Amino acid sequence: MLESPWLIAALWIGLALLASMISIRVGISVALIEIIVGVVAGNAIPWVGSLFGTQAKLETTPWINFLASFGSILLTFLAGAEIEPDVLRKHWKPSLAVGFVSFLSPFLGTMAAAYYLLHWSAQASMIAGVALSTTSVAVVYAVMLETGLNKRDIGKLILASCFVTDLGTVLALGVMFANYNWWLVLFLGVSAVIMPFAPRLTQRFLRRYEGQVSEPEIKLLLLMLFVLGGLAAAANSEAVLPAYILGLVVAGVLRHHKETVYHIRVAVFALLTPFYFLKAGALISASAIAQGALVILLLLLVKVAAKFVGVYPTAKLFKMDNRVSMYTTLLMSTGLTFGTISAMFGLNHFDAQGHSLINSDQYSALVVVVIASAVVPTLIAQKWFQPQHELLEENGNGA
Amino acid sequence: MIENTWVLPAIWLGLALVATLLSIWLRIATALSEIVAELGKAAVFTNPFAK
C-alpha cells in the first residue's frame, strides 16, 4: 500500500520507538517488546485495512530484509564480544559441561518431540531442535547486570555457559544445513586465515585510529563480517556463525575499547535490530497461534523439561546448592535471539524440492515458544531462586 | 552478477574503508576521498565497450 520508502521507514521506526518506550516503562528486554509489537502490527494492520476495504499490511522490502539480516549478524557479533576470554578460561570445566548439556538435551528432546509427536518433517524437526536449544545471552546478560551477579563467579559462569550453548546452536545450524561444496571449503579456508589475524589487526586499527570520526576500526570489523558472512551464505550456511566466532576472537581486544563497542551498540539497537525483531514478530500469524496452542505448549514443556534434565544434575555435579542449581537451570532455559534467528533461517531457506524448511505455522509456533521461554523461566528464577551473594561467595559454587 | 546479500555490502564497505584510510593519511575530508574511491571503482569496473 505504502510506496514511499520514507513512509515505510517512518512506520517501522515509529513501531520501534513505541517498543522502546514500552520496554523502558515495563522494564522488559526491548527485543522481546519489539517482537510483540511486530506481532500486533503484523496482524492488526491487515485487519484494520479489511475494515476499510483495502489490502493493507506491514510492508517488508528488500532493504528492510537487508537491515534485519545486518542487525542479526551484528547483534550476534556483539554477543560473542561480550564473552571475556579470561572468564571462559577460568570457568572452562563447569561452563563447558553446563553449556554443552544445555544445548544437547533440548536439541535432542525437541527434535524428537517435533518428529515423533508432531510428525514434522526431518528438516523441520531439526530446525525445531536448533531453535529451542538456545539460551538467550541478551536476557541472561540483562538479568546479570540488573542483579549485580555479573561481577560474581556464578554470574560469570552462567554467561560463559550461555556462550557454549549458543556456540553449539550456531555450529549445528551451520553444519546441518550447509552445502558441502567448494564454497564451504573456501569459507573455512578464509575463516582460518582471517580469525587468527583479526585480533592483532583490530588492535592495530584501534591503537592507530580510535577516536577518528570516520571510525575505520568499525568499518574493518564490518568488512570482515560481510566477507565471512558472504562466504558462509554462499555455502548455504548462516552468516551468524562467523559473526559469533569473530566476536569471541576479538572480545579480548574490544574489552579495552568500550567506546568502540558502545558506538557499534548504538548502531545496532537504534537502527538495525528493531527491523530484525519487528519483522520476526510480524511474520507470526495470530490465527496460527490460536490453532497451534497445543503444539506451542508441548514444545515449551519439552524444551524446559529437557533443560532441567540436562542442566540441573550437571550443576549439582559441580557442587552448586539446590537454589543456585535451580537458578542456573532456569536462566539456561531462556531463549530469544538465536531461537528467532534459527526459526527465520528455517523459513527463508529451501530444501531440494524448493519448499521452505519450515512453514509459516511452524515458524509461528517456534517463535512463540522462544518468546515464552524468554519470559517464563526468567520471572520464576528472579522471583523464587535468586542466589544470595554472601552465600555464593562462601560456597564458591564449584566455579 | 552478484546474488549473495553480503557481497555487494562487502565491496561497498571495502571501498569505504579504503576511502577512510586515504582521508586519514592525506588529511582530507572522508566524504571527498569516498567520492574519489567511488570514481576509481567506476573506472575499474565499467566496461568501456558497453553502450
Largest sheet of chain B: none
Radius of gyration of chain B: 13 Å
The chain-level mean pLDDT of chain B equals 78
Low-confidence stretches of chain B: none
Strand content of chain A: under 5%
Give, in order, the helices and strands of chain B.
HH
Alpha carbon gyration radius of chain A: 21 Å
Question: Unreliable runs of chain A, pLDDT <50, ≥5 residues?
Answer: 390-399
Oligomer: heterodimer
Query: What is the number of E strands of chain B?
Result: 0
Sheet/helix structural class of chain A? mainly alpha
Shape of chain A, please?
A: globular
- How far apart are the first and last residues' alpha carbons of chain A, in Å? 57 Å
Number of helices of chain A: 18
Reconstruct the topology from this structure.
The complex is a heterodimer of chains A (399) and B (51).
Chain A: H1 5-26, H2 30-51, H3 62-81, H4 85-90, H5 92-117, H6 122-131, H7 137-147, H8 153-177, H9 182-209, H10 216-234, H11 240-254, H12 258-282, H13 286-291, H14 293-317, H15 322-332, H16 337-348, H17 360-384, H18 389-395
Helix pairs in contact in A: 1-2, 1-12, 2-12, 3-11, 3-12, 5-6, 5-8, 5-14, 6-8, 6-16, 7-8, 8-11, 8-15, 9-10, 9-11, 10-11, 14-15, 14-17, 15-17, 16-17
Chain B: H1 7-26, H2 30-45
Helix pairs in contact in B: 1-2
Any overview of this molecule?
The complex is a heterodimer of chains A (399) and B (51). Chain A has 399 residues and is mainly α. Residues 390-399 of chain A have low confidence and may be disordered. Chain A has a single domain, classed as Na+/H+ antiporter like fold. In chain A, helix 2 (30-51) runs parallel beside helix 12 (258-282) and helix 10 runs antiparallel to helix 11. Chain A is built from 18 helices and no strands. In chain A, 79% of the residues lie in helices and 0% in strands. Chain B has one domain (7-45). Chain B has helices spanning 7-26, 30-45. The mean pLDDT of chain B is 78. Chains A and B meet through helix 3 and helix 10 of A and helix 1 of B.
